[in-house]
User: What shape does this take?
Amino acid sequence: MSDNKSPWGNGSGGKKSGSGKSPWGNNGRPDRNKPRAGETSQDLENVIEGFKSRVRSSRGGGGGGFGGGGGGGNSPLAKFGPFGIIIAIGVITMLVSTVYQVDQQEEAVVLRFGKYERTSPPGLNFKLPSPFETIEKRPTRVVQKTTISGSNGSSMMLTGDENIADIDFTVLWRINDLKDYIFEVDEPAVALRAVAESAMREIVGKSELEKIITLDRLGTTIAVRDLMQNTLDEYKAGIEVVEVQLQKADVPEGRVVEAFRDVVNAAQDAETSINKATEYENTVVPNARGEAAQIIQDAEAYKGRVVAEAKGEAERFNLILKEYLAAPKVTRQRMYLETIEQVYAPADKIILDDAAGQGIVPYLPLDQLQKKKGGN
Assistant: This one.
């Protein structure tokens, strides 16, 4: 092997010619080991000439080059030249394009010549080489967020009681049918925003302002979510509305706020008055009902007593009548004595014996009797 490193040797039958670095020797030409100004070095020329020789060998079956030696091109691609390399690269690319990976949070639709063919689940999947089949991936298990705010005045809405509400809200959604999401609706995200605004305006238009901003916020969001889902299902948008969240629900800034505050204050004053009246009612009405019940009970007791006494008197009269009919004289005498007893029972009495003191004027201590009567 020649001393130089050129694949063609030194070109002089094994003897060094000149510096021994040119493949053709000097042949009477100037020494190129010492490059002149404006000329390239001999090493660079050797590289260029070697590359040219390899290209000629690959085309014409000469020595060296892509064939792996000078034996007329032993490489399987040597007979095809550069086109063989291009074909090999194309085949490899097509084979690689038949395998694709779908992430855990995604799904992919397979298009055959641009037409829907199937939906691929997460994992390793196969398809026909491109361009026969292509794929489109979307995150179907990720909850996405769309915020609708009042930066452009879209949050101003008219309520059912003819007030204006400033409402900002957020829609949480995800893709539940990738085929419908891609093919049924043009720009689904834009359609989702439009449906959200329309649904919120409809629900707000049926509700009162005070309920929206205070007590019925949850009911409003649930109604908007259901209405959005029904509308998107009619469009076959392939979107599932997970939740609607009210970020802000208030009256517009400015004079409207002051007027609304006056209304709120008046409503609070009215509520206070109602509470006081209710408290008074809860105090007075039970007392009145208690007194009325007591009067009714007293009347019932008086009724029972009077009726019982009347019945007793009637029964007593019947008994006396029966006795009177049996012995009238005795009965009259008894009735007389009982009557006298009732009449004179509470009076002070002085009993005088008819047989004693005849002809003598009896002395009655009237002053003592009067004092005793007055003391009683």
The two ends are 169 Å apart (CA to CA). Strands lie at 99-102, 106-112, 115-120, 123-126, 133-139, 144-148, 156-158, 164-175, 239-250. The longest strand covers residues 164-175. Residues 1-40, 61-73 have pLDDT under 50 and may be disordered.
